[in-house]
Automatic annotation (TrEMBL):
Pfam families: AAA. Belongs to the AAA ATPase family. GO terms for molecular function: ATP binding; ATP hydrolysis activity. This is ATPase family associated with various cellular activities (AAA). Residues 49-182 form the AAA+ ATPase domain.
Length: 236
């Protein structure tokens, strides 16, 4: 199976200014970007950049958009794969599939974004043969991560980091947790979204204890409902 069948070459351009980070994540990501900016100076002293990142936590809180923003900022191609689709029902083929993708991204010094990374540790009723194949896959992933070149970037995302093999987790130098935003954080996000619409659409019922993605969907649905209502009233 070719790389084109396993990956998505993602050209989406997202700026960091468009993403709302926790102070801790913003500090860590700023440091990461500075390391890549000065990678040659660091290499003169035998220092490597932190190029293996795990993004974990609640769904819809910006893990995928963060990966895209990092790729844009450091000027690298992004190859995206979803482990839930690349892991074959025939586990014996999976190590080969994953290795093919890693080698392609490494050769191009690209960003390799792996979504649903927890699929490696998902609880399934493996028979004895499949359990052995899954362990071989885990060992293969460990080797691929260990030898991933320092001038390329590996980003993995998961909603369930607790099920991932601990030996794999240790390979990631940077682990960033994405949590549900605070009320203040959501208010800031709502205000930024509303700036694109006339004041007449700014009055709506805000919801909290949700992700940024859920908040955006809620706001857009409310505004669409109001726009349609206004248009229908014009025709009466």
């Amino acid at each position: 199976m070719g790389v084109s069948n396993l990956t998505i070459y993602d050209e989406a351009k997202i700026d960091f200014e468009d993403i709302h980070f926790s102070p801790e994540n913003k500090t860590a990501l700023t440091r990461l970007l500075k390391e890549f900016k000065h990678i040659e100076a660091l290499s003169k002293y035998g220092l490597t950049v932190d190029n293996k990142i795990l993004l974990y936590g609640h769904t819809g809180c910006g893990k995928t958009t963060t990966a895209k923003a990092i790729a844009k900022h450091i000027g690298k191609k992004t190859y995206s794969i979803d482990l839930s689709t690349i892991i074959s029902s025939r586990l014996g083929e999976t190590s080969k599939n994953v290795a093919t993708v890693f080698k392609k991204a490494a050769h191009e010094k690209a960003v390799l974004f792996i979504d649903e990374f927890d699929y490696l540790g998902a609880s399934r009723n493996y028979n004895k043969k499949d359990s052995a194949e899954m362990q071989r896959l885990v060992n293969s992933i460990i080797q691929l991560i260990d030898f991933y070149p320092s001038d390329a970037l590996l980003i993995a995302a998961t909603n369930f980091s607790e099920v991932i093999d601990s030996a794999i987790l240790r390979r990631f130098q940077l682990k960033l947790k994405f949590e549900l935003p605070s009320k203040e954080g959501l208010d800031t996000y709502y205000d930024s979204l509303l700036s694109a619409f006339p004041n007449q659409y700014h009055q709506f019922s805000r919801i909290y204890d949700v992700s940024y993605a859920e908040a955006k969907d809620h706001l857009h649905q409310a505004i669409k409902t109001q726009i349609i209502k206004d248009e229908e009233e014009k025709r009466q």
